[in-house]
Specification:
0% of the residues lie in helices and 46% in strands. It has no helices and 13 strands.
Length: 107
């Protein structure tokens, strides 16, 4: 059950709030740019599972979370899980990654 979604080779930019807000859903971001959002780039809340990854090739395309006005990735709440590989976190105003109690992060 629950909502599922996949973004591949997408751009999530210049949103007035959070770029990607995920609560109680499974989301995959593959070779995706999350940039210049006015809050967090990615916010994973309770019960969410977020996988962020690039092509898997040594010099291949990666996912990029940069220059957001809050955190690049914020993870909070019971059961919130974020896994990232082949991902660049750069130039976010607050933190590249912020995790709160109950959250799990795998880098």
């Amino acid at each position: 059950g629950g909502a599922r979604g996949t973004l591949r080779e997408c751009k999530v930019i210049l949103n007035r709030g959070v770029g990607c807000a995920i609560i109680g859903a499974q989301v995959s971001l593959n070779q995706t740019l999350v940039q210049s959002n006015h809050s967090n780039g990615i916010a994973a809340g309770p019960g969410s599972q977020v996988d962020i990854f690039g092509s898997g090739e040594e010099h291949g395309p990666s996912s990029v979370v940069r220059q957001n006005h809050g955190c690049g990735i914020s993870v909070s709440g019971d059961g919130a899980t974020v896994s990232a590989h082949g991902t660049v976190l750069s130039g976010n105003l607050e933190h590249g990654l912020a995790a709160a109690a109950g959250a799990q992060v795998k880098l």
